[in-house]
Amino acid sequence: MSNVLIYSGIYILGVIISAFAQILLKKSASIERANKLKEYLNFKTIFAYAIFFGATLCTVFAYKYVPLSMGPILGTTEYIFVAILSYWLLKEKISKKKLIGLITIVVGVLVFSI
Fold first, then answer.
1. Where are the alpha helices (DSSP H) in 1-114?
2. For residue 7, which of 50, 51, 62, 106 is within the disulfide window of CB 3.0 to 4.6 Å?
């Protein structure tokens, strides 16, 4: 059981890393570029995709002990992390509708965990 908790933590770490990569991609997309090629071949974009690769490795590694049925449940927590990071780093507002959705995700994760 302790292996499942440790590897679930690794899975969640991968989810958090992925959320940071999404924020980095959004910041990179907001910058005007001279041509289309520079939109995709710039440091922030390439680094964000490298971070996604690292997050994927965390997920694959975590599936060593995390049951396959638990993966999508843990993966949904990414919505929560992206919303928090967007609020914190991008100064985006969290609407009532989005807040209700995030609370529903948290309740779903808690119900699955019990």
1. 2-29, 36-40, 43-62, 71-75, 77-89, 96-113
2. 62
